[in-house]
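Q: Mind making up any chain with structure tokens?
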Amino acid sequence: MKVYYKATYTYKLLRLLWSEVHEFVSTLGEIMAYCWEFLKGLLKFNTSFKEIIEQCSRFGVSSLPITLSIVGMTSIIISMQVAGEMVKQGGGNFVGMLIAILTVREEGAIMAGFAIISMIGSSLASEIATMKVTEQIDAIKVLKVNPVQYLFTPRIIAGTLMMPLVVIVSSLFGIVGGAVAANITSELSYKAYFDSVWFGLSMHDMNVCILKAISFGFTIALISCSCGMAAKDGAKGVGIATTKAVVWSFVAIVILDLLFAAVYFY
């Protein structure tokens, strides 16, 4: 009877569901454990500033072109869609406010986060995963060096510090791009656009944007490094770890974005 039960689709579906839940809980536990290890390592701070600067360059300079492209093009597309209709309805003086609030509150941070995950997060995960499957992590442990403090600390610090700068620059770029698109599509003057931006944007919006960017940078770096550290089974494991890092980072920043919206704007 047991053999027949295991052959049913119900049993297979339940086993698949259980494996997914187990994978989720175990991955979340590993990330929390690595986070705690990282926080403990901050008290000792054995990381060199040179390594932090190198990782900052990686997060900020290397990712800036793709981030500016994504955020800027998104703002231009939205401005092209709404500017003409708002001018027709007599709401031209609110176009800049709409684009600025949308960019600063949501689009700048979330699109920059997606760009960082795609370019930097996947790179971090594959780098550490390769070190894990080629036993370089074991060599670091033999030298009595904590691999979490040695590898995680400069990357997480760099992500936490550089993400706000990337978001600020990309948001400004998006707002300016929206102005150009609005002027071309609806002949809205730049003065009316930027007067609306100045009138509608508040310090509260900018403070929340910076706080959100800090949390995004920390989360992306932590998840990417954690998934890379958990890699196994050779080259296949590197691919699985990289994919898991990207998926988990996407889901994490969307959940964080929802929490920020609920706490600060609801």
Observations:
- The mean pLDDT is 86.
